[in-house]
Design a protein that fits this description.
Length: about 270
């Protein structure tokens, strides 16, 4: 059995807002590792319920929060002026988790934009995490974002739900989810994302931090070729790469999700107590 707890955590600009935080923990036995989930652009942590449960079943206690301006957290919708602040919000979540689980090894799990944020957290707070898992991460460059930035007017074009997964139910649930942002990018957010990408590219190697990169080969939202340059810029001494044939952007929601999660668990168990 798994217990779930939700609360409001101080966050956002100057800590003046509220982050919708959540934790999952096994009700029997002691967890052997700590996972902190970092979700992607426009979505929210609630979309990771099954991922969290699977990780708990594999011995983890799982924490995370909706980013500022996302999901149930406060702030103007998807408006982020500086992603350094979002990195600080993740630090608030980690600090909260550490009040209860001081000694467990920490595995950061970041998807898409969350992959960039998790990577930047590892760069800004070296030694805080024992491992990093990146799923379809926005790293290196994001060609689609560069095209949006160059446009005189940002197009109001929602994400094509068919690009998320080969399972049509995933796209249908995404479209129906009222906590997902279905509107256009906002110019300050675009500029802030491009700035944070450059920060990540120039901040240097992750050194000895173990890294697992998982990506769908047929990812049209964040192409493997875009991410590859970013992985090469940050990769340290211990890198594992799994590119899944046929898979699209959300490999944790793909038709072969069990295979993907098994890869994550196998990697994380290298560091469990």
């Amino acid at each position: 059995m798994i217990s779930t707890r939700e609360w409001g955590l101080a966050g956002g600009p100057d800590g003046s807002g509220k982050l919708a935080a959540r934790a999952w923990a096994p009700t029997e036995g002691e967890p052997t590792w700590l996972a902190v989930l970092v979700h992607g652009y426009g979505e929210h942590l609630g979309r990771y319920e099954q991922v969290a449960q699977d990780l708990c079943a594999a011995g983890a206690v799982v924490y995370g929060a909706d980013h500022r301006g996302h999901g149930r957290s406060s702030g103007d919708r998807v408006l982020i002026d500086d992603y350094a602040g979002v990195v600080e919000d993740v630090h608030r979540v980690v600090t909260q988790a550490r009040t209860a689980y001081r000694s467990l090894p920490l595995v950061l799990v970041g998807h898409s934009m969350g992959g960039l944020i998790a990577t930047r957290y590892a760069q800004v707070y070296p030694g805080s995490a024992q491992a990093l898992v990146l799923s379809g991460p926005v790293l290196g460059r994001w060609t689609a974002l560069e095209e949006i930035a160059a446009a005189e007017e940002i197009p109001d074009a929602p994400i094509d739900p068919s690009t998320l997964s080969r399972d049509p139910a995933v796209g249908e649930a995404y479209v129906a989810d009222e906590l997902v942002w279905h509107g256009p990018f906002k110019r300050p957010t675009v500029n802030a994302l491009l700035t944070e990408l450059e920060r990540g590219n120039t901040a240097g190697s992750l050194g000895s931090l173990p890294l697992l990169w998982v990506h769908g080969h047929e990812d049209r939202l964040v192409p493997v070729t875009d991410t590859k340059a970013g992985i090469e810029a940050v990769a340290g001494e211990d890198v594992t790469v799994r590119i899944f044939p046929g898979a699209r952007h959300e490999v944790f929601n793909e038709t072969n999700r069990d295979e993907v999660l098994a890869e994550v668990v196998r990697f994380a168990r290298r560091f469990s107590l």
